[in-house]
Every structure is written in structure tokens, then in C-alpha cells.
Amino acid sequence: MVRNKLYICKEWHIQPSEIDRLNYYEYELICQEINIVQKEQEKQQKQQEKEYSGLKNSMNPNSMMNSMANNMKMPSMPKINMPHL
């Protein structure tokens, strides 16, 4: 309970005395809502990390050079048949 109270005070800028004034069921509801918000934030953070890592990999200079080399294929030499003398 103390840890939850500390978290609520820190993250939501609520004085400890205000939390003490709450009824227990109100306190429990607040804790449940905070848990829901935290889970949503974690999901968003993981999604952003995936997007960032994908962007980071695509912006890697080595991979960019490799993809450029693959796209710039050397033209093939034409086949010339030399006459036999």
C-alpha cells in the first residue's frame, strides 16, 4: 500500500494527505485504473521500440550500401563472335 501511495504521489502529483482522505474502495479503483494505464503505456512503448528498431535497421549505412550495390547492377558485356581466320 505504501509503494502504491508513493507512486500515486510521484506520478500524479497528489499529496499523501489527499490519498489518506480517500475511502478504501476509491483508493482501490484508482490503483486499478493506474495499472490499466501502465499496461497501455507499456504496449505503446514496445510498439514504438519495434518501429524505431525497424527504422534504425533501414538507416544503417552498411545495409544502405548493400541495397545500393544490389540495385546498381553492372551491365553485361555484349557477346561478340569473332570470325575465324
- Percent in helix: over 70%
Give the uncertain stretches in residue-range form. Answer: none
The tally of helices reads 4
Total number of strands: 0
Please describe the biggest sheet, giving its number of strands, its sense, and whether it closes into a barrel.
Answer: none
Rounded to the nearest angstrom, the radius of gyration is: 31 Å
Residue share in β-strands:
under 5%
Note the gap between the termini.
100 Å
What structural class do the secondary elements suggest? mainly alpha
Q: Give the mean pLDDT.
A: 81
- Name the overall outline: rod-shaped
Write the element-wise H/E pattern from the N-terminal end onward. Answer: HHHH
What would you note in describing this structure?
This protein is mainly α and 85 residues long. The chain has a domain at 2-56. Helix content is 74%, strand content 0%. The chain contains four helices and no strands. It has helices at residues 2-12, 16-21, 24-58, 61-71. The longest helix has 35 residues, at 24-58. The radius of gyration is 31 Å and the shape is rod-shaped. It starts with a helix and ends in a 14-residue tail after the last helix. The mean pLDDT is 81.
Summarize, please.
By secondary structure, the protein is mainly α.
Give a topology summary.
Layout: H1 2-12, H2 16-21, H3 24-58, H4 61-71
Task: Supply the key terms.
single chain; 85 residues; 4 helices
